[in-house]
Write a structure and sequence with these properties.
It is a single chain. α4 runs antiparallel to α5, α4 runs antiparallel to α8 and α8 packs antiparallel against α9. By secondary structure, this protein is mainly alpha-helical. It folds into two domains: 246 residues, Heme Oxygenase, Chain A (Up-down Bundle), CATH 1.20.910.10; 66 residues, no CATH class. 63% of the residues lie in helices and 0% in strands. Pfam families: TENA_THI-4. It comes from Gossypium raimondii. This is Thiaminase-2/PQQC domain-containing protein. One of its GO terms (cellular component) is cytosol. InterPro entries: Haem_Oase-like_multi-hlx (IPR016084), Thiaminase-2/PQQC (IPR004305), Thiamine_Salvage_TenA (IPR050967).
C-alpha cells in the first residue's frame, strides 16, 4: 500500500494510524469492478446519486463549522472549502456527462448514506457522542472546538477518496483510452482535488492547536468513526454483477449480496500458504520409530526423500487448485488482475 505525505500534524498522524482500514474500501466489489473497468452503469449511477447527498452534507457541515470558528482567517478558510463543494454540486451534472455517463435518476438514501450524513450533521451541530458539549455554545472556545471536531469528521473522507483513486490509477495503463472510468479516476487524482484534501487537513491542524489531550482524543474518535462510515458507504454499494474479491468486511443481505469464501484444503484462510511451513516442521520433528519401537516406511525415509515427496504432492495440489479456481472465475479475469496487481 503506497505512502502519502499529509504532514506532521494531527491530521497526518490520524491518517497514518487508520490508513490500514483503506484496504476494506480498496477491495470492495465496487472499487474492484471500477478498477477493472467493467462496473455496471447502474451501479455507478447509484453511487453518483448517493454521492450527491454526501456533498450536500459536507456543504452543510462546513456552513455550521464556519459559524463556530472564532478567527476570521479560519472562517474564510472554511468558507472556501464550502465554496469548493458548492461548485462541485453546481457542475456535477456537466462533470458526469463529461465523464461519459448519463445522469442518474433521483434515488432514495441508503442506510449507509443516512448514517454518514447524520453523523456529519450531528458533529457539526455539537452533538458528539460521549462529549459534553453545551446546547448553547456560549464561548468562542467552545465554538472553535466544535469547528475542529467537524473538520476531524470530514478530513478522512477526502484523504481516503484521494488515496484510493491514486491506488487505482497506478494500476491503469495511462495510454489506455478504453477504460470507461478513467476520466472519473483521473479527476479525483488531480492536483486540484489533492489540494482540497490537504487544505482540510491543514485547517484541522490549525484548529486543533489549542485543544487539550482529551479533546484531541475526541477528534481521533470522530476521525476513526468517519473512516468506518466511509468504508460502510462503499461496502454497501449494490453490485448487480459477480465480483471476485480477496476479502469482505460487510455484506448486506438487503441488497441481495452473496459471499463465497475460498479456503485452503485444511479449511484455513491465511494470507500466505502455511502448508510448506507445517510440512517442514513435521519432517524435522517426525519420530524415528513408532511408540512400540517398530519402524514404518515413513520413519525409514530420509529428510531429503520426505521433502521430495512433499514437493510432488504440493505441486499437484497447486496445479489442481489453480485449475479449480480458473474454472470458477474464467469470466472475471479482469477483476482478479485488478486486485492481484495492487
Amino acid at each position: 500500500m503506497g505512502g502519502m505525505d499529509v504532514g506532521g500534524g494531527i491530521a497526518g498522524k490520524l491518517w497514518n494510524k487508520f490508513r490500514s482500514e483503506s484496504v476494506f474500501v480498496n477491495y470492495t466489489p465496487f472499487f474492484v469492478c471500477l478498477a477493472a473497468g467493467n462496473l455496471s452503469a447502474d451501479s455507478f449511477h447509484h453511487y453518483i446519486s448517493q454521492h450527491v447527498h454526501l456533498l450536500n452534507a459536507f456543504a452543510h457541515a462546513y456552513e455550521l463549522a464556519e459559524e463556530c470558528a472564532d478567527d476570521d482567517e479560519d472562517k474564510k478558510a472554511i468558507r472556501n472549502l464550502r465554496k469548493y463543494v458548492q461548485a462541485k454540486l453546481k457542475s456535477h451534472d456537466s462533470l458526469v456527462r463529461e465523464w461519459g455517463f448519463e445522469l442518474p435518476e433521483e434515488r432514495s438514501l441508503t442506510n449507509a448514506t443516512v448514517k454518514y450524513t447524520d453523523f456529519l450533521s450531528a458533529t457539526a451541530s455539537g452533538r458528539i457522542e460521549g462529549e459534553r458539549v453545551p446546547g448553547k455554545l456560549a464561548t468562542p472556545f467552545e465554538k472553535t472546538k466544535v469547528a475542529a471536531y467537524t473538520l476531524g469528521a470530514i478530513a478522512p473522507c477526502m484523504r481516503l477518496f484521494a488515496f484510493i483513486n491514486k491506488e487505482i490509477q497506478a494500476l491503469l495503463d495511462p495510454n489506455d483510452s478504453t477504460h470507461i472510468y478513467k476520466k472519473w479516476i483521473d479527476h479525483y487524482c488531480s492536483e486540484n482535488f489533492e489540494a482540497y484534501a490537504f487544505r482540510i487537513e491543514e485547517l484541522l491542524d490549525t484548529l486543533s492547536i489549542s485543544l487539550t489531550g482529551e479533546e484531541l482524543d475526541v477528534i481521533e474518535k470522530l476521525y476513526h468513526q468517519s473512516m468506518r462510515l466511509e468504508v460502510d458507504f462503499f461496502s454497501s454499494q449494490p453490485i448487480i454483477q459477480e465480483a471476485v474479491v480477496p476479502l469482505s468486511r460487510t455484506l448486506d443481505p438487503a441488497v441481495g449480496g452473496e459471499l463465497s469464501i475460498f479456503c485452503d484444503f485444511d479449511l484455513t484462510c491465511t494470507a500466505f500458504d502455511s502448508s510448506a511451513i507445517l510440512a517442514e516442521i513435521a519432517i524435522i520433528t517426525r519420530p524415528k520409530a513408532d511408540p512400540d519401537g517398530s519402524e514404518t516406511q515413513l520413519s525409514r525415509m530420509s529428510s531429503a526423500d520426505l521433502r521430495s515427496t512433499w514437493d510432488a504432492l504440493s505441486a499437484q495440489y497447486t496445479e489442481e487448485f489453480e485449475q479449480c479456481v480458473e474454472s470458477i472465475t474464467t469470466t472475471k479475469t479482469g477483476l482478479i488482475n485488478a486486485w492481484q496487481s495492487s
